[in-house]
């Protein structure tokens, strides 16, 4: 499963690129606004440190505006993925970009039917919002399973990008649902490789080694 960081903070991204575990980045207008940066400059800065897909979202709501903004975002770098809202105009833009081989991430997906429409529009990625589905009292993980089942049944190649993930349990559930990718806030990413028993086990190994007079062997 590909792991993307869901942030527009270049420092947060840079710090986490070194281990080679981050496959890409997703941003949205709220995250760009929070960074206080110009969107074009910020996406360019992110693409300078990330080779994988970097989702950059349009803010126009009409087809013509989305086409213009999407093409402008794509001028920044070859790894920019144009993020489009799951609206009629967004789907029309997605279908047009698919014909032009422009990668897309259709966002704000809350239902199986919406995911079906995005696949029919040949989206590269569909982003079901797990946390926000749960905020509204629904089952976000069940939605991921349903999308996986339907995409597999019909052979749709749109990749499922689990989004709005709020916990490490969400990440495990996305993997078990067979999602192609998951995007998560840096603080959740940082917890993925941690376990208290790893920490205590290592502490014991090292204290045993020290007690036996173990010295450096390099
Ligand atoms: C991803 O593409 C979305 O921007 C993001 O995951 C939304 O997460 P939130 O619901 O926690 O804001």
UniProtKB/TrEMBL annotation:
<keyword id="KW-0963">Cytoplasm</keyword>
<dbReference type="InterPro" id="IPR013785">
    <property type="entry name" value="Aldolase_TIM"/>
</dbReference>
<dbReference type="GO" id="GO:0016832">
    <property type="term" value="F:aldehyde-lyase activity"/>
</dbReference>
<dbReference type="GO" id="GO:0006098">
    <property type="term" value="P:pentose-phosphate shunt"/>
</dbReference>
<dbReference type="GO" id="GO:0005737">
    <property type="term" value="C:cytoplasm"/>
</dbReference>
<keyword id="KW-0704">Schiff base</keyword>
<protein>
    <submittedName>
        <fullName>Fructose-6-phosphate aldolase</fullName>
    </submittedName>
</protein>
<dbReference type="InterPro" id="IPR033919">
    <property type="entry name" value="TSA/FSA_arc/bac"/>
</dbReference>
<keyword id="KW-0570">Pentose shunt</keyword>
<dbReference type="InterPro" id="IPR018225">
    <property type="entry name" value="Transaldolase_AS"/>
</dbReference>
<dbReference type="InterPro" id="IPR001585">
    <property type="entry name" value="TAL/FSA"/>
</dbReference>
<dbReference type="Pfam" id="PF00923">
    <property type="entry name" value="TAL_FSA"/>
</dbReference>
<dbReference type="GO" id="GO:0042182">
    <property type="term" value="P:ketone catabolic process"/>
</dbReference>
<dbReference type="InterPro" id="IPR004731">
    <property type="entry name" value="Transaldolase_3B/F6P_aldolase"/>
</dbReference>
<dbReference type="GO" id="GO:0005975">
    <property type="term" value="P:carbohydrate metabolic process"/>
</dbReference>
